[in-house]
Amino acid sequence: MTAAMVGWAHLPFGKHSDETVESMIVKAATDAIHDAGISPEDVDEIVLGHFNAGFSAQDFTAALVLQANPALRFTPATRVENACATGSAAVHQGVRAVSSGAARFVLVVGVEQMTTTPGPEIGKNLLKASYLKEDGDTPAGFAGVFGKIADSYFQKYGDQSDALAKIAAKNHKNGVGNPYAQMRKDLGYEFCRDESEKNPFVAGPLKRTDCSLVSDGAAAMVLTDPATALGMQKAVAFRGLAHVQDFLPMSKRDILKFEGCSKAWGQALGDANLAIDDLSFVETHDCFTIAELIEYEAMGLTKEGEGSRAVLEGWTEMDGKLPVNPSGGLKAKGHPIGATGVSMHVLTAMQLTGTAGDIQVKNAELGGIFNMGGAAVANYVSILQSMK
């Protein structure tokens, strides 16, 4: 165990035109420090996850965390970015700072404000997480990229519309109980399965209910070493973690395999001396339902081409053998890019401390997290376990 979470905070995700990147950073950072029971003076290092890519006019945002308290002045602060995995990049950077002995307490914050950007610009900004030489003119932006992936998957393995609708319906049902989720509405399988005026096709076989939400939000945590964590009110340890980076061009790899995801899971599980079946639940990156489907295969839950079994046979439901996205995932919770990975870790820590409320997984002991940037380019896996 290299580091542990000892405090955290999570703002509601959604459309927050009355907030700014700065105000959300300040709220999340302040709440996380308070939750950890430490003083701002105790923070040795700050890591901020903020994708931006044009969403915020204010760039160079790392030092904005210092606005949370004057005592944070002169604390080293760094902004990290790795597309949609920006939040986990920040978390892993914080873990490295603690495990190396460079810092005793690290404050990690993830933030994004997307909804104040005009619609066409949102698509353009998100498409920057793809390889523009090949995908820069893709209709429907990043949804179009995953629409092409879904088309290819359907051509190879058959129509998966039932499975995608099941994934969407499952995650929206789970999201009803998540107070931080942007959409707390059980849409039902039929609504997600059928094309309609309210659920039109967006790209390829992907409908609106197959696509994650554009969101504003922030989340934060305090990390420390395991020995220090044992003396604190709560402690959730990193039992395994891995970061695997793959080629950016999809033309250089078999995009239906998510090989970087598979390797990251293999490394993290090996680090933790665990198998996928040992986990109590998983929070995985469902930016689009086709992504969650392929991730079932990449994490080793099913064989290649058989991901649909996991959802159609109920394995990934809240009462299944491996609940996936009990939080509602990006589908229901929302996907403020820089905050997403931090959010996944915070909600996993809540599960493992029995404080997840209406989304609590029964007897949760080990939680797995997969957060990716781009189309399985930046792949981060964390395996968490409560120390108390």
Q: How does the SSE layout of this entry go?
A:
Blueprint (H helix, E strand, L loop, with lengths): L3 E7 L10 H16 L8 E5 L27 E4 L5 H14 L6 E8 L5 H9 L4 H4 L5 H17 L3 H15 L13 H5 L7 E3 L2 E2 L8 E9 L1 H4 L6 E10 L13 H14 L8 E4 L4 H10 L8 H6 L16 H5 L3 H16 L13 E8 L4 E9 L2
Parallel strand pairs: 2-3, 2-4, 9-10
Antiparallel strand pairs: 1-7, 1-8, 4-7, 5-6, 8-11, 10-11
Q: What series of H and E elements makes up the topology?
A: EHEEHEHHHHHEEEHEHEHHHHEE
**What CATH architecture of the domain at 3-117 and 214-231 would you give?**
3-Layer(aba) Sandwich
Instruction: Please indicate the percent range of residues in DSSP E strands (runs of 2 or more).
Output: 15-25%
Q: For the residues shown, what is the average pLDDT?
A: 97
Number of helices: 13
Structural class: alpha/beta
Largest sheet features: 9 strands, mixed
Per DSSP E runs of 2 or more residues, the count of β-strands stands at: 11
Helix content: 25-40%
CATH level-4 homologous superfamily of the domain at 3-117 and 214-231: Thiolase/Chalcone synthase
Q: Radius of gyration, Cα only, in angstroms?
A: 19 Å
- End-to-end separation in angstroms reads 14 Å
Strand order of the largest sheet: 3-2-4-7-1-8-11-10-9
The CATH topology assignment of the domain at 3-117 and 214-231 is Peroxisomal Thiolase, Chain A, domain 1
Given as residue ranges, the uncertain stretches (5+ residues, pLDDT < 50) are none
Q: What general outline do the C-alpha atoms trace? A: globular
CATH class of the domain at 3-117 and 214-231: Alpha Beta
GO molecular function: acetyl-CoA C-acetyltransferase activity
Keywords: Acyltransferase, Transferase
Organism: Roseibium alexandrii (strain DSM 17067 / NCIMB 14079 / DFL-11)
InterPro entries: Thiolase (IPR002155), Thiolase-like (IPR016039), Thiolase_C_2 (IPR055140), Thiolase_N (IPR020616)
